[in-house]
Design a protein that fits this description.
Blueprint lengths: L7 H4 L1 H7 L1 H9 L1 E5 L3 H12 L3 E5 L3 E2 L13 H13 L14 H7 L2 E2 H12 L8 E3 L16 E4 L4 H18 L12 E8 L2 E7 L5 E2 L2 E3 L2 E2 L3 E2 L6 H6 L15 H15 L6 H15 L4 E2 L2 E2 L2 H9 L4 H20 L8 E5 L4 E5 L9
Parallel strand pairs: 1-2, 1-6, 2-5, 6-7
Antiparallel strand pairs: 3-4, 7-8, 8-15, 9-12, 10-11, 13-14, 15-16
Length: about 375
């Protein structure tokens, strides 16, 4: 049997050689807040916990129903199906609780478990050095006060509504203003805020590093630039306020397809909590596309809304979540260590060609 190394320096030796002792210290002192577990942010959490970054999970959806189809190494399909079968055999209600006159002790064991509480012991197993630093928030996101969010070094959220993303963004901006926005590197206490989802072979992420975040660009071996800000900067609230019809770039004459699909799905998931027939989605998407004045075809091919309806109900593909999660995990590390130029401010992943590119949303863009 191989003995586990208990020493911090032994466990993180390769990372210390790669990033340096100071960068590893910052990572070991950091905490990331994960909202609504998905395939992509589970991948980010796995990578960061193994690297020594503590995790706090907020997901009060019922387990295992809410993550039954989610690709994640944290949840075993066999284990989830067994729990569901046991609930059915014991007369489980819609909320996972036992119906009828069962003994109180049995009822206590069969009450609904949340996704956050189910994942907690699995996260602890990943990195024993973080024992006692990981935790969960079992309450609904909307019940968490605004001042809560700024205590974290990063927030990674999936299945978030536009309104929820704006609320967290405003809370972080207010906290940053109270900090005073000092230009010194040591006062760089911004919270990185990421909103990301994957859908079919595509994935999208919005990244807000904070108004006063500074980083050092790599100039060569063991050479780093002076601290520099992320420019141009646009908050998460600002990104969500940019009219999609005007979101164009140097190489994008029209708003990128993946960006359109993500915002469409964000709005759809907010209004339709349960799976809906394909016809319902197509009607919703047709009205949404017209209201937002975005293209219905790309490269002379119309968006296949009937196919997208299936993706809306069963969105995640394991390899897509793994690749995008790896890319975004690296962005979190760059933000924590302040080394390396960050992706500013949207990332678009296309699973057909394996490409992941950045796209810049700009403040002050107006609808056509």
């Amino acid at each position: 049997m191989v003995q586990r190394a208990d020493s911090h320096d032994d466990v993180y030796d390769r990372q210390i050689r790669l990033w340096g002792a100071d960068a590893q210290k910052r990572m070991s002192n950091a905490r990331v807040f994960y909202i609504n577990l998905s395939g992509v942010n589970c991948e980010i959490m796995k990578n960061l916990v193994l690297a020594g970054v503590a995790a706090v999970v907020c997901d009060n959806r019922p387990y295992p129903e809410a993550v039954r189809e989610m690709p994640s190494s944290f949840f075993s399909a066999e284990e989830m199906e067994k729990i569901i079968a046991e609930k059915g055999a014991s007369g489980g209600g819609a909320d996972g609780s036992i119906e009828g006159g069962e003994p109180e002790t049995k009822k206590a064991k069969t009450l609904v478990e949340t996704v956050a509480s189910a994942v907690a012991p699995k996260v602890e197993e990943l990195n024993p050095l973080l024992t006692g630093r990981n935790s969960i928030e079992d309450r609904p996101l909307d019940s968490i006060p605004d001042e809560f969010f700024s205590q974290f070094d990063a927030i990674v959220a999936s299945r978030l509504s536009v309104a929820q993303a704006k609320r967290i963004s405003v809370a972080l901006q207010k906290s940053d203003e109270k900090e005073g926005g000092n230009d010194g590197e040591e006062c760089n206490n911004n919270t990185l805020f990421i909103v990301t989802d994957t859908f079919g072979l595509d994935g999208c992420a919005y990244l807000d590093y904070g108004r006063t975040h500074k980083f050092r660009r790599e100039l060569g071996k063991d050479k780093m630039s002076d601290p520099m800000p992320v420019e141009p900067y646009l908050s998460m609230e600002g990104m969500m306020n940019v009219p999609l019809a005007s979101a164009k770039g140097r190489f994008d004459k029209v708003v990128p397809r993946i960006l359109v699909l993500h915002r469409l799905l964000m709005d759809y998931w907010e209004q339709r909590k349960e799976q809906q027939p394909s016809e319902e989605f197509v009607m919703f998407a047709d009205e949404w596309i017209g209201r937002n004045n975005v293209p219905k075809s790309y490269d002379e091919q119309e968006l296949q809304l009937d196919q997208l309806a299936g993706i809306a109900n069963h969105p995640e593909v394991s390899p897509v979540a793994a690749v995008l999660g790896g890319v975004l995990g690296n962005e979190v590390i760059k933000a924590l260590t302040r080394k390396g130029e960050p992706a500013n401010n949207v990332m678009l992943f296309n699973g057909l060609d394996g490409g992941c590119r950045s796209f810049l949303l700009k403040e002050g863009e107006k609808s056509a």
